[in-house]
Amino acid sequence: MEKSLIKIFDTTLQDGEQTPGVSLEIREKLEIARALAKLKVDVIEAGFPIASPGDFDTVSQVAANIKGPIIAGLASASIKDIDAAWAALKKAERPRIHTFIATSDIQMQYKLKLNREQVLLKAKEAVRYAKQFSPDVEFSAADASRSDWDFLCKVYAAAIAAGATVINVPDTVGFTTPNEFGNLIKYIHDNVHDIDKVDISVHCHNDLGLAVANSLAAVQNGATQVECTINGLGERAGNTAMEELVMALRTRKEFYQAATGIDTKHIDRTSRLVSTLAGVLVSPHKAIIGDNAFTQESSIQQQGVLNNSLTYEIILPETVGISRSSIVLGKHSDRQAFEERLKQLGYDLDADIINRLFVRFKELAERKQTVYDRDIEALINEKADAAESYRLTYHQVVSGNQTVAMATVKLETSTGIIEQATLGDGPVDAVFKAIEAAVGLEINLKDYAIRAVTSGQDALGEAVVWVERDGRSFSGRGLSTDVIEASAKAYVNAINKMLAAGGGPGDVIEKNV
Questions:
Q1: What is each CA distance from 359 to 178, 215, 507, in whole angstroms?
Q2: 67: which of 89, 164, 390, 486 lies 20 to 30 Å off by Cα?
Q3: Are 378 and 478 spatial neighbours (Cβ–Cβ below 8 Å)?
Q4: Distance CA 182, CA 188 (A)
Q5: Whole-angstrom Cα distance, residue 507 to residue 354?
Q6: Strand locations in 111-223, DSSP E?
Q7: What HEC string does 462-489 produce?
Q8: Least confident window among 19-23, 64-68, 357-361, 364-368
Q9: Cβ contact 143:112 at 8 Å
């Protein structure tokens, strides 16, 4: 039996950024887009151009700079949305306009305030109008899984007749189950005229934890494209996790009789990049890319893996780009060895970037007995903000179980050094309050997390904080073998992002990374 080729439509830059609190800068989105192209996704949905000037600029930049994948721009079924999408996409090597309208009775009545005939007409007109600009047009019937099946088929047939090349079946609210969704895809396949001339796409949300299962059921019943995000990012409970879907199809290829063109060796690296830039830590127990995914603690399982890894590991770590090497480099390693290891990890970096990374590596090696691959990757992903108003140059914390914590910080600015000292409820609270006092802003700390990048007492610590000001959320990240320093760096990083987005006063200082 011939295997079906399933196209991967990545919407990390669109749906993924709708994860509460995530706000990516254009340069960060471009970096993710480049990683997605290296991963060999078929389609990158770069954003919703009409939504904001930032979204428009992102789609324009991705369209102009990323080659290989189709670049899609989202547009509701309206002329102004489609005009904006095409204006942003027109420099793309392979552009796609992705237009949508809701088709469930509940959304037509309460959101659109339109009847079925009006929605059918708008769907046809939107696809026909978009087709004037782009030969590749995708049409989505939002909330398809809760729509009347016969009406849904009527809308899809009209979209195809108007020129759609892809019809998308979203489970917008994560409501359906695998058996139901599979039956819906089969019904559409059997009842829509000219369905064989287009790709059948699915877009599942994870509200019931079934997004991947529903997508796989759709593949079994005729879907030829799956829309997903790296790490399953997305609003509410997220979207179909690309890494899980791709590896399920690859690992159980004889069962699903389907494959993708994804270069799986780049999965782990892309996952960590997205996690870093979005400020959303991956759970250790996350399938495929969690820290525990290839870790055996049970002595019986360890013995089995040592004898034959397939006894308990159905996926070889190397398949998704996870190296099994232990100690990689140390403080006596030279630049040539460091550069060679970067190449082995799959990084092709400019000489000036390698030079800066080597300095950071040497600093880390002086503080850490052994440096692992994940330490190096953490350094690579630790980038300065485009607009850095403050830089932490010094911190000191005095704390104990019977003393009030006191922290002193020094921050470098464009006009000099600011120093502040404050008391707090514990060392982290004290250093955060000292930073707040130094920048002169009241900031609401929404969330804070810290984890070890690798193992051992000298492990590199990664801190992530979420701050809020004027109803907007910003994430920050910091790395250090000192968890207090990592936390302070993360807090300053979040403040710099907030200021860069117009969240308060601050002058940019010259970079020295």
A1: 51, 45, 27
A2: 164
A3: no
A4: 10
A5: 28
A6: 137-142, 166-171, 199-204
A7: EEEEEEEECCEEEEEEEEECCHHHHHHH
A8: 364-368
A9: no
Report the CATH fold assignment for 391-500.
Answer: Double Stranded RNA Binding Domain (3.30.160)
* Structure tokens given for 430: 């004290």
DSSP-derived pairing of the beta strands 472-480 and 258-259: unpaired
The superfamily CATH assigns to domain 4-278 is: Aldolase class I (3.20.20.70)
The answer on pLDDT for 329 being more than 80 is no
Residue 506 to residue 388: CA distance in whole angstroms: 9
Q: For the chain, what's the residue count?
A: 513
Closest of 296, 334, 326, 338 to residue 313, by C-alpha: 296
Distance CA 393, CA 372 (A): 26
pLDDT digits (tens, 9 = 90+) for 168-194: 999 999 999 999 999 999 999 999 999
Within 8 A by CB and 6+ apart from 42, the residues are 7, 8, 9, 69, 70, 225, 261
Widest distance between CA atoms in the chain: 76
User: Could you write out the DSSP letters of every residue in 128-150?
Assistant: HHHHTT-S-EEEEEETGGGS-HH
Q: Would you tell me how many other CB atoms lie within 10 Å of the CB of residue 419?
A: 13
Which two structure tokens, joined as six digits, stand for 300?
């019986």
The per-residue pLDDT for range 463-500, each reduced to its tens digit, is: 989 898 877 788 888 888 899 999 999 999 999 888 88
The rounded distance, in Å, linking the Cα atoms of 148 and 116 is 10
- Taking the C-alpha atoms of residue 214 and residue 205, their distance in angstroms, rounded to an integer, is 9
Return the residue matching tokens 């070889």.
316
Judged by average pLDDT, the poorest of 83-87, 123-127, 410-414 is: 410-414
